[in-house]
Amino acid sequence: MSVVRYSLLYFGLVFAAGFVLGVIRVLWLAPILGERNTELAEIPVMLAVITVAARVVVGRMRQPGPGACLATGTLALLFMLLVEFTVVLGLRGITLVQYLESRDPVAGGAYALSLLLFMLMPALLTWRQEDSTGARR
Predict the structure, then answer these.
(1) Distance between the two ends of the chain, CA-based, in angstroms?
(2) Which of 3, 1, 2 lies closest to 70, judged by CA?
(3) How far is Cα 80 from Cα 53, in angstroms, rounded to an integer?
């Protein structure tokens, strides 16, 4: 399986979970708890999803090196941003500028950090498994 396929798998797993959680957040939780609170509450759940999805993908890779895992995460992030900035904004009927202006600064900053972790997680899992000599544990 190529890096592109691993990236699509990683993106798909995380996007599917995020889509389900987003529906729950927008339809049921945000009206009760507020947008910022629900977005912030969703992030730890999504970080758990990201970790599990990255483990699934890295586990399927043959001899995953940090470079291939970083490429997988980077490409998956590009897929995520492409979908978010085209499909999601299209469904909401807003421009990218309107989307960025509408983001809560606290929740938006936390979301940006979670995207960075999404990109890095496959590589972080791989680097963690290597000892100082570069051998796999």
Answers:
(1) 23
(2) 3
(3) 14
Structure tokens at 75: 């490409």
- The CA-atom distances, in angstroms, between 54 and each of 60, 74, 95, 129 are 10, 12, 31, 13
- Alpha carbons 67 and 80: distance in angstroms, whole number: 20
Q: Tokens in use for 106?
A: 């606290």
Per the confidence metrics, is the pTM higher than 0.85? yes
Cα 43 to chain center, whole Å?
Answer: 10
Provide the residue ranges of all domains of the chain, joining segments of one domain with +: 3-127
CA distances from residue 97 to 30, 38, 61, 63, 86 in whole angstroms, order as listed: 23, 23, 38, 41, 13
At which residue do the structure tokens 């970083």 appear? 70
Q: How far apart are CA 68 and CA 63, in angstroms?
A: 9
At 136 the three-state DSSP class reads: strand
pLDDT in tens, the chain (137 residues): 799 999 999 999 999 999 999 999 999 999 999 999 999 999 999 999 999 999 999 999 988 899 999 999 999 999 999 999 898 888 889 999 999 899 999 999 999 999 999 999 999 999 866 644 455 54
